[in-house]
Design goal:
Elements (H helix, E strand, L loop, with lengths): L21 E3 L2 H8 L4 E8 L2 E8 L1 E3 L2 E5 L5 H6 L3 E10 L4 E13 L3 H8 L15 E14 L14
Antiparallel strand pairs: 1-8, 2-3, 2-6, 4-5, 5-8, 6-7, 7-8
Length: about 160
């Protein structure tokens, strides 16, 4: 049942994202931060339901690259699919952190020269039995990120005050 202000129960109509504690990041900052961590989460569809898996990855020419088993569920489910990928870092004690999410099309890397180039990145899958060279490459089309809480680095929160 809608509330007097028009919101249905459990639906958030708006969110205060202009707070000094929440900073939206530029696409360049997002890519830089994403490249600073070794693991992220890939979100894809498996049997018509959302699936999320923790994976290690590398950034290569602005794309997210994952090495996995060619016969695995992740490889099969992401071939040509639109996926999301998220990486973050949080300091619980300092109550600060950032989160970056991208959306893009995933593709299996099949070109021999590209596979050889990616093998030199030294990205090793954490899944046993994936010593082969099956790579998934995600080219970002949507990039969003935000930093929350605490003191910000140079050019952070004080730079946005008017």
């Amino acid at each position: 049942m809608p509330s007097p202000d028009g919101a249905a129960a459990g639906i958030l109509l708006g969110m205060d994202t202009d707070s000094l504690a929440l900073e939206h990041l530029s696409p360049e900052e997002c890519v830089q931060l994403m490249g600073s961590v070794p693991v992220g989460r890939i979100v894809y569809t498996r049997q018509a339901l959302p699936a999320v898996e923790l994976v290690n990855f590398a950034l290569v020419d602005g794309d997210i690259v994952i090495r996995t088993n060619a016969e695995g569920k992740l490889a099969a489910a992401t071939r040509g699919a639109v996926v999301a990928f998220e990486a973050d870092a949080v300091d619980l004690e300092g109550q600060v952190g950032w989160s970056v999410a991208i959306v893009g099309q995933a593709r299996a890397v099949t070109d021999g020269e590209e596979i050889r180039d990616l093998e030199r990145v030294a990205l090793k899958s954490w899944v046993p039995g994936t010593a082969g060279g099956h790579f998934i490459r995600i080219s970002p089309t949507i990039v969003n990120g935000r930093r929350v809480g605490g003191p910000q680095p140079t050019g952070g929160r004080d730079a946005h005050r008017q």
